[in-house]
TrEMBL record:
This is Malate dehydrogenase. Residues 25-168 form the Lactate/malate dehydrogenase N-terminal domain. Substrate binds at R104, R110, N142, R176. Belongs to the LDH/MDH superfamily. MDH type 1 family. The keyword Cytoplasm does not apply. The keyword RNA-binding does not apply. It catalyses: (S)-malate + NAD(+) = oxaloacetate + NADH + H(+). Keywords: NAD, Oxidoreductase, Tricarboxylic acid cycle. One of its GO terms (cellular component) is mitochondrion. Signal peptide: none annotated. SUPFAM superfamilies: LDH C-terminal domain-like, NAD(P)-binding Rossmann-fold domains.
């Protein structure tokens, strides 16, 4: 009891100092959706967020009214597409999260979402480039391999592109990998740092099964939800963790590292402008991009296959904006 009270008071003190020193407006576009709602809830509980701005084509003000009754210090405002709603939502934002878009149904690939989500993300990016060009943009809408290049092209066309401030949120893949590996190895999932753990202890069929489960983790959820959508709750946690990491880095913490899909030098010589790897975050966004490190032959095979697809996914996003500016 005493320990719980002490923890609560420490938490409150931290909450107070974080919000007193730093005012951070975070906006969520697509806030009334399956991801948007729990993501907004988690952000409402984050003491580093001082202002939460929620936009959706329908339902933003309702979600905002609900969350605004939670007794944490941040203010919450909801916006509709009418008049200057989107602009007002975006103005002054330090972080913009984009979970707007359609999710997968059983049998669909992420790429099947392209036609609908490409134009949604393009239009939201246009508004963001005008209203808050210096904000960090965190793209959740799939296919991330194409939607991130779409945002980059929109920003480039307006001369406001800063490659250090654009992120594809790929946190969920690593969150899943940590959990699945911990189940095989009987370790603590929150401490399972995937890219640096010693995987040589998992080999053969067990390794293949694990890799397959991680690669198709999203399908597991799509299938279990049976037409009602894709991962929303675990994705909300992953998105909130990424936003929290950016805020920690913005507020001066060093050594904050997250896996994320960014404009990256790693494979530019192969014509691939974006790649997901472990990225150190700083006050201006991307601070240092880590390479994939030493990998074995098996992993190299997976990487080669990935690079071929990735190049096409990126080009598809770039071509879309060229053809539909
Ligand atoms: P959902 O359909 O439940 O919610 C989407 C929300 O976006 C709805 O409230 C809808 O009204 C809103 N919306 C649609 N067009 C909009 C626009 N132009 N402006 C503002 N809001 C708009 O879908 P859910 O499950 O929340 O998924 C959202 C996206 O996230 C999908 O593209 C999905 O594939 C993706 N996703 C990404 C993951 C990742 O690891 N990056 C993991 C899981 C899903």
């Amino acid at each position: 009891m005493f320990a719980a009270r002490r923890t609560a008071s420490l938490f409150q003190k931290r909450a107070f100092s974080a919000s007193a020193i730093n005012a951070s407006k975070v906006s969520v576009l697509g806030a009334a959706g399956g991801i948007g709602q729990p993501l907004s809830l988690l952000l409402k509980l984050n003491p580093r967020v001082s202002e939460l701005a929620l936009y959706d084509i329908r339902g933003g003000p309702g979600v905002a009214a609900d969350l605004s009754h939670i007794n944490t210090n941040s203010t919450v405002t909801g916006y509709n597409p009418d008049a200057s709603g989107l602009r007002d939502c975006l103005e002054g934002s330090e972080i913009i999260l984009i979970p707007a878009g359609v999710p997968r149904k059983p049998g669909m690939t992420r790429d099947d979402l392209f036609n609908t989500n490409a134009s949604i993300v393009r239009d939201l990016a246009k508004a963001a480039a005008e209203a808050a060009p210096k904000a960090h943009v965190l793209v959740i809408a799939n296919p991330v391999n194409s939607t991130v290049p779409i945002v980059a092209e929109v920003y480039k066309a307006r001369n406001v592109y800063d490659p250090k401030r654009l992120f594809g949120v790929t946190t969920l893949d690593v969150v899943r990998a940590s959990r699945f590996i911990s189940q095989v190895q009987n370790t603590n999932p929150s401490g399972e740092a995937v890219p640096v753990s010693n995987h040589s202890s998992i080999a053969g069929q067990a390794r293949d099964a694990l890799v397959n489960r991680i690669q198709f983790g999203g399908d597991e959820v799509v299938k279990a939800k049976d037409g009602a959508g894709s991962a929303t709750l675990s994705m909300a946690m992953a998105g909130a963790r990424f936003a929290e990491s950016l805020l920690r880095a913005a507020q001066g913490e060093k050594g904050v590292i997250e896996p994320t899909f960014v404009d990256s030098p790693l494979y530019k010589d192969q014509g691939i402008d974006f790649f997901a790897s472990r990225v150190e975050l700083g006050p201006n966004g991307v601070e240092k991009i880590n390479s994939v490190g030493e990998i074995n032959e098996y992993e190299q095979g997976l990487l080669d296959a990935c690079l071929t697809d990735l190049k096409k996914n990126i080009q598809k996003g770039v071509d879309f904006v060229k053809a539909n500016p």
